[in-house]
Amino acid sequence: MLWLILLVAWFCEVWGAPVDTLKTTDIQYDEGYINSMKSGQPHLIKTSETLLDFEGDYAVQEGDILLPNDRNAVSQLWPEVNGSLSVPYEIDFVIEDRTEHILNALKMISENTCVRFHPHTNETDYLHFEYGEGCASYVGCMGGEQPLLIGPHCKEGNICHEVLHSLGFHHEHSRFDRGDHITILNENIASGKEDNFVKKIGNTLGLQYDLGSILHYGNNYFSRNGKPTILPKESGVKIGQRSHLSDLDVQRIRKLYRCDKTP
Predict the structure, then answer these.
(1) In CA terms, which of 16, 108, 181, 215 is 20 to 30 Å from 253?
(2) Active site residues
């Protein structure tokens, strides 16, 4: 019997899968910052528009953040070329059927700001729209081929939300002055998701808090009991819309990318 036990132990050691080996499907998608082993990058931080992490036992938890988390707009901006800004993008063939949705999301930004988008040719830095279990993006320009994940249930507004992250914007509810506008109900936040509600002290570009922002969380995000995790202090206000850029969203983009600068 002892030899059988030893044989089983040897087999598990030799043939067992390493515990730190993750598949693409192990990525934890939420609206916080997470680690991912996708493409061999152990600290790929993404934000997402889906709540799929509540639907499965995902191995990846909150981890190191590549970008400083103490500001609302980061410094990693997409660079101008010959005095104008146009972000290169590429759509993976796997999600070619989502091309219209992606282009409409880009149009939501380009038709209201100086930020343009064009198909990638030979540029070093570009957005690569690819399939994911949910919608996800880096925050800011990271350099090289920059993945932006599109899940089956991500609509145009969700995609626009993620593109704004790629342009350098964090969630509106993380602003340092949010306490004047919303109440965070910590008792209703799911265990392990508290980091998604941490305030960030930093640059708000001199613009007022925007409850109507496409970058704002909804009332029940990451609720452990179905009760609200965020309540606006102004009655009758809806938060978490994903249908359009608010006026302040447009102003925010224009200010960060200096759309109104004079030659």
Answers:
(1) 181
(2) 162
First to last CA, the chain: 84
What is the torsional sign of CA 98, 103, 105, 106? Answer: positive
DSSP string of 51-108? Answer: -GGGSS--S--S---SS-SS-SB-S-PPPPBTTB-EEEEEE-GGGGGGHHHHHHHHHH
Neighbouring CB atoms inside 10 A of 118's CB total 13
> For 130-162, how does the pLDDT look when each residue is reduced to its tens digit (9 = 90+)?
988 777 787 888 888 988 888 888 899 999 998
In the structure encoding, which two tokens stand for residue 158, read together?
A: 């969700």
Torsion sign, CA atoms 137, 202, 237, 51? positive
Token pair for 72 = 């609302």
Confidence of residue 252 (pLDDT cuts 50, 70, 90): very high
The type of residue at 40 is G
Which two tokens mark 217? 């969380």
Dihedral sign computed on CA atoms, order 65, 66, 71, 73? negative
Cβ contact 164:156 at 8 Å:
no
The bridge status of strand 126-131 relative to strand 136-137 is unpaired
Cα separation, 251 vs 260, in Å, equals 10
Beta bridge partners of 182: 232
State both tokens at 4: 């059988």
Beta strands in the chain (DSSP E): 47-48, 86-91, 116-119, 126-131, 136-137, 145-150, 182-184, 230-232
Q: Considering only CA atoms, which of 117, 92, 232, 122 is closest in space to residue 172?
A: 232
85-110, pLDDT tens digit by residue? 999 999 999 999 999 999 999 999 99
Kind of pairing, strands 230-232 and 182-184?
antiparallel
CA distance 9 to 3: 10
